[in-house]
Structure formats: structure tokens, C-alpha cells
């Protein structure tokens, strides 16, 4: 678990309570959809989703696509805009960070399902990190297992395999993975690739 915490800090930096500054989510801009060439050129290995009024000091990694969900009304548009920027089966990790108080009002299964097809089969992992409302009260009011019931169910319904969940320093962390392709899926994908190659010739 210490390795997981270190990986998050190395990638995203330290969390900062009480701030609502939004990390830039749209490297291609808000007015137009990215072209195929732009999508192929931009290949983030990690997607970071922050839910609610919180902020991470970004470590400056160019291959991290970051987005913030601050209201239910903007949620779907934000997810769809980000999804258009990523090619299927190219992302290694999806990180979702939220305070426990934001789950009931801002969390939705679409946050997990929207990026399912962009994760690499058998390798792409989803880490959901739920923080206590206040770090000062982490020992007295830690996040509990039932606080994340909706997230746990959302992971399963989206098709992920839940591998681990554990309380850590007042927070609750869930780790899931996108299953690998079955032999049938691999054959269908190979056929699709062959069809695409034939259509290009």
C-alpha cells in the first residue's frame, strides 16, 4: 500500500485541501473536437479525475490527462470531451480522487464506464482514492467501507475486476483492473485489424 501512495504522489503531487482550482483538461481546446491526427499524437498513459472542491499540485507530467468534476450538470460534458482525446486501449491507469462528502452528490457510474475502452486490456488499472472530509479528523472520522458502496458497485457494473480495497490513513482506496481479452475477443480484434488493412489497400 505504501508503494501505491508513493506512486500517486510521484505522479500527481501532494493534495491541497480547500482549493478548487481546476487543472487544464483540454489540450486541444474547448471549441472544436480533436482530429484523428491530434488524437494519435497525444497519448496520455494516465487519466486523473478529481471530484468536488479539491486540488492536486500537478507534478508536470505531460502524459497525464487531468479533469475536474465540480457539478452534476457539467459531469457528462466533461467526461465526453476528455474521452474524445484518447484512443482506445492506450491508457495504463485511471485515477479517481474524491472526498467522501462528494460521493453522494457528484459521483456517477459514468465516471468509471466512460474510459473503460481506452484502458489497455489486462493491464489498465483503476485506482479510486476517497479522502476523509478533513485530514485533521482522519483518525476520528475515517472513510468507512460502506461509504464507497456506490463506487464498488460502479466498478463491477462497468466490467472491471476488483483486486483490492483498503483503508489507509483515514482514506479508502479501491484498486481494480480491466480484464484481458478472451481468445474470441482477440480473434475478432485481429479480424477487424485485417479488414481495416484490406480497406486501406
Description:
With 201 residues, this protein is of the alpha/beta class. The protein has one domain (2-200): Rossmann fold (3-Layer(aba) Sandwich), CATH 3.40.50. It is built from seven helices and eight strands. The protein has helices spanning 2-12, 36-41, 72-83, 103-106, 110-113, 149-158, 183-200; strands at 15-16, 46-51, 55-56, 64-69, 93-99, 125-131, 161-168, 171-177. The strands form two sheets. Strands 4-2-5-6-8-7 form a six-stranded mixed β-sheet, covered by helices on one side. β7 (161-168) and β8 (171-177) form a beta hairpin. The longest helix is centred in the C-terminal third of the chain and has 18 residues, at 183-200. The protein is globular.
Keywords:
single chain, 201 residues, alpha/beta, Rossmann fold, 6-stranded mixed β-sheet, two-stranded antiparallel ribbon, 8 strands
List the helices and strands and how they pair.
Blueprint: H1 2-12, E1 15-16, H2 36-41, E2 46-51, E3 55-56, E4 64-69, H3 72-83, E5 93-99, H4 103-106, H5 110-113, E6 125-131, H6 149-158, E7 161-168, E8 171-177, H7 183-200
Parallel strand pairs: 2-4, 2-5, 5-6
Antiparallel strand pairs: 1-3, 6-8, 7-8
Strand content: 15-25%
Q: What spatial form do the alpha-carbon principal axes imply?
A: globular
CATH topology: Rossmann fold
Number of helices: 7
Order of helices and strands: HEHEEEHEHHEHEEH
CATH architecture: 3-Layer(aba) Sandwich
Mean pLDDT: 78
**Poorly predicted residue ranges:** 11-30
Which structural class should the secondary elements be placed in? alpha/beta
Q: Distance between termini?
A: 50 Å
Helix share, percent: 25-40%
Kindly provide the name of the CATH class: Alpha Beta
The total of beta strands comes to 8
Strand order of the largest sheet: 4-2-5-6-8-7
Number of domains: 1
Biased composition (Basic and acidic residues): 1-12
Region (Disordered): 1-20, 179-201
Biased composition (Acidic residues): 184-201
